[in-house]
Amino acid sequence: MQSPCMARRIAEALCYIIGSMMNWSFSAFSILQFFIALSTLTTAIVAWQRRGVAGSRSLALGMAAVTLWAVMTGIETASTSLAIKILCSKVAYIGICSSPVFYLLFIVEYTNQEHLINRQRLVLLWIFPLLTMLVAATNDLHLWLWNSFTPIAGTNLILYGHGPWFWLNVVYVYSLLMAGILLLARAVIRYPMQYRPQLLMLSLGLLFPWLGNIIYILYLTPGEDMTTVGFALSGLCLLLALFRQGWLDLVPVAREQVVEWMDDGLIVLDDSERIVDINLAGRVLLGQMTRTLNPLETGWVGLPAIRIAEAWPDFASHYPFTGEAHHELTLQAAGKIRTIDMRVTLLANRSVSRSGKMILLHDITQLKAVQMEAERARAAAEALFRIGNALSSAPSLAEGLRQVADQTGFLVECDGGLVMARLHDELVLQTCWGLCDAVKDLTIPYTDGMPFEQVQEQLDHTLDQFHTAGGTRLILPVIYQGSPAGLLALGRRNDQPFSDSERHYATSLADQISIAFENARILGQLQEMAITDGLTGLYNRRHFFVQSENIYQHSLRYHEPFSILLLDVDHFKGVNDRYGHQAGDEVLRRIAQTCLSVIRRIDIIGRYGGEEFVAALPNTDLKHALLVAERMRAAVENNAFSYNEQRGIRVTASIGVSAMQVTGESIEHILERADQALYAAKQSGRNTVRGLQTGPDAPLPPVP
């Protein structure tokens, strides 16, 4: 029952307003209000279109609230009905109470001070405006907002008598405007000079609504609220920022959070080579150099860059900068030498003319130390590799240990060393160099269970007798299969102790020396790993081509035929998908063994890659190579492979065959024709053999 009644009342009110419009009297002030509404609505639309920029949403909502305020003021001043005037004034209070709050939120967001407004403070911020809207709507009951309505003679305006709540609202609104100005002033101080014009323009924009409201309160324009005019001028300031300067696109959001607190020093110079901006890291970096750079008198901003050059010799060697640059500088500060990576970037203004430079200073001292350690580790690894290679390939243990003497300097800074090996119940000198070169025919008794510390003491005593006393020594055991097999001793003349990294490298060297005791076994294992495929046991691709090239050159020398087979397992992906990759690996191993069972001892076969295999057949022409390929294809087809519980796995293979046709052609050409033949086999239905004579257009001979 209430809904139809409410709808009827609204309809009656609309009819009443429309009917009263016939008696409206438009003045210059009321018409001005509608123009103000158009202006603020335009600002709201533009700001909303850029709502991705910080502060734009609050600005748009604030301008929309002012638009409502101006429209209601225009209707109120044009209407001749007191009831409509009061009604419009009540509705206008929605915009009057909302716009200052939205303005404050805009300033908070735009100046990157959102931490000041959390959820609880936002709720508190809206409590009084909402209460004011309620007081305005119910003013007829208590007269707290307006206590009288006096017509102004000779005009269509009325003079509102202000109740106590009106003045409370004035105090609250002025407090919000003052808070906004203080936040802008704080931002002006914190942010660099290039942001100050826009912040000052925003501050000026806040003063206009304040000035307009003061004019209204003091009755300087009786019955005409000039506050909306102030908001319109404020909107014009923002429109100027939007269209002419693009300041909403240049929000100083990142300045405090990113630039000021970034680890790298950032210095911005203007076109006169003076500092216009410098972050905390830059101030700390420059402040450590010398007393010459003392910014306490004038501050960093405005300091000529030549002052930096005067205090920093390495900087001066590259200054002035004529273009973009990238240099590594050395900076001596606080008794330490630091390495600074400097990048200079040219800055351009809106007319794309050069307007300054940005200097980024990145302290790479630790990075350089890490790089030096990494370089040393690389050199040590290479030295260990060379030592291991020498110990493994040397014709004798003595020759391999002489290589150790040549490479030790890349691992440990030392002036000499020696290596001893255990022979029965004594340690016997194998080689010595440098500082220990005077030691000849050195032996030390050694029995099972003797502590290594005792061995060290005996060696130190012996070396002292050979006039090598003093300095620093590092003596390490050489372990072979868990048992002491000898020792490594390194020494230097100064008293600097060996570092942990040097001990680590020396221990690695001792481990390498132990490898010399099992040279033959390790060398054989390494050679086997280097030439075979880990899955199938066949030659890997690299070694296959090395061996096949040797066989091919032999065939050329003695004018013998030579052929190549290229085998590819058909639909091998289906095997992996259906049975799993482990089953697929087992199938490849079985195919490899099947192919080995078909070819001769003088033939070689290798894994070409993936599920492809390649075989070289010396002294075999194309006709006989096709026969071999057919036997290989049939063997693969007739073989049922098994893996765990998977039995009866069957696959087929396509094989391409090519033979040497032109004396002097490369083995790559023969392989290329085999690949073309393999492609032809695939195209003809798979599980078949195709051969190619001399080129892609040559006929494919049938398999005999």
Verbal overview:
By secondary structure, the chain is an alpha+beta fold. Helices cover 53% and strands 19% of the residues. It has 23 helices and 19 strands. The strands form five sheets. The chain has a five-stranded antiparallel beta sheet with strand order 4-3-7-6-5. Strand 18 (653-659), helix 23 (667-683) and strand 19 (689-692) form a beta-alpha-beta unit. The protein is elongated and about 130 Å long.
SSE layout:
Layout: H1 2-20, H2 28-49, H3 56-78, H4 82-110, H5 119-137, H6 139-142, E1 146-151, E2 158-162, H7 164-190, H8 196-217, H9 227-245, H10 253-259, E3 265-270, E4 275-278, H11 280-287, H12 305-311, H13 313-316, E5 325-333, E6 336-348, E7 354-363, H14 365-393, H15 397-407, E8 416-423, E9 426-434, E10 443-445, H16 452-465, E11 472-480, E12 483-492, H17 500-515, H18 519-531, H19 541-557, E13 562-569, H20 572-579, H21 581-598, E14 604-609, E15 612-618, H22 622-638, E16 641-643, E17 646-649, E18 653-659, H23 667-683, E19 689-692
Parallel strand pairs: 18-19
Antiparallel strand pairs: 1-2, 3-4, 3-7, 5-6, 6-7, 8-9, 8-12, 9-10, 11-12, 13-15, 13-18, 14-15, 16-17
